[in-house]
Amino acid sequence: MAQRLALQRLLSLPTRGLLAPHGRAFGTSAGRRNTFNVQDGSDFQDRVVNSPKPIVVDFHAQWCGPCKILGPRLEKLVAKLEGKVLMAKVDIDDHTDLAIEYEVSAVPTVLAMKNGDVVDKFVGVKDEDQLEAFLKKLIGA
After folding, report:
1. Which residue ranges does the record assign to the Thioredoxin domain (predicted)?
2. pLDDT grade, residue 141 (50/70/90)?
3. Three-class SS string for the chain?
4. Does residue 88 lie in a domain region?
5. What is the pLDDT averaged over residues 39-67?
6. Distance from C-alpha of 115 to C-alpha of 106, rounded to nearest angstrom
């Protein structure tokens, strides 16, 4: 009986953050489709540099406390914009080459990119009002 209850609870949990067989995260909410983890340099080129939409690139690390605060805030605001901007997450420990190429010297570092060019940048944690202003500037709202 206890095992059945535990299984029912497990099955009723949201499915966000599951990994697809090819290693990319997927979810059921619209907001998750606007955010993705960069897999490698080629993936960054295809999905970030060549993106037809404005894109926010979050350079972060698993061990970074401020990154754990900023990331969810930024994801929530990107989701609110309903596809007007995308968000790419780059773990600097997995993708040191990208961190060096984009001159990331501290985390979190967030880049705003349009047509493959960096148009704005900030380092550190920002409050929601500052993040909204950053995103609105990026999409021209």
Report:
1. 14-140
2. low
3. CHHHHHHHHHHCCCCCCEECCCCCEECCCHHHHCEEECCCHHHHHHHHHCCCCCEEEEEECCCCHHHHHHHHHHHHHHHHCCCCCEEEEEECCCCHHHHHHCCCCCCCEEEEEECCEEEEEEECCCCHHHHHHHHHHHHCC
4. yes
5. 97
6. 24
Catalytic residues: 64, 67
Q: pLDDT tens digits for 89-136?
A: 999 999 999 999 999 999 999 999 999 999 999 999 999 999 999 999
How close are the terminal C-alpha atoms of the chain, in Å? 55
Which residue range is the domain that position 76 belongs to?
35-139
Query: What is the rounded CA–CA span in Å between residue 137 and residue 4?
Result: 51
21 occurs within a structural domain: no
In a domain, 57, yes or no: yes
- The rounded distance, in Å, linking the Cα atoms of 24 and 55 is 18
In a domain, 28, yes or no: no
